Amino acid sequence: MTDITALQNPAPKKKADTFPAMLDAYKTEISRALPKHLSPDRMARIALTCFRTTPALAKCQPASVFAAVIQASQMGLEPGILGQAYLIPYGQQCQLIPGYQGLIDLVRRSGKVTNLFAHAVYEKDQFDYCYGINPDLTHKPAPGDRGDIIAFYAVAHIK
User: What pTM did the predictor assign?
Assistant: First the structure.
């Protein structure tokens, strides 16, 4: 026999007031935001690992941490040690900061770039560039000890 009172007044859902609870409660929201190459379980595990390895995130409002995870999900970037994106605490707010590897991944996924690379230039390297109608860049790494890093550059070949 079914209790009519229980059907009319279902137990209130537990409020997700911590970040781990929000991850669990709103996993379907994460799955809606994710591209096909990422699973909601993987994103939740990665986000929870970031949360647990960065103690300052516990001082942030849980909703701001969750919002940053949703942003990462929408972009298809994994926050954490791989350098695609980072969950950065600013006071009580968490912000998603894409890393250079995540930006490169986004550019490659856009389909608008045929080649993309970046290099460091060291003191002893032969490096020359010029602007103008015919821009040019030449970089020949020095053999052996190249000295200290003095610059970086990136090149993208656009379709």
Answer: 0.68
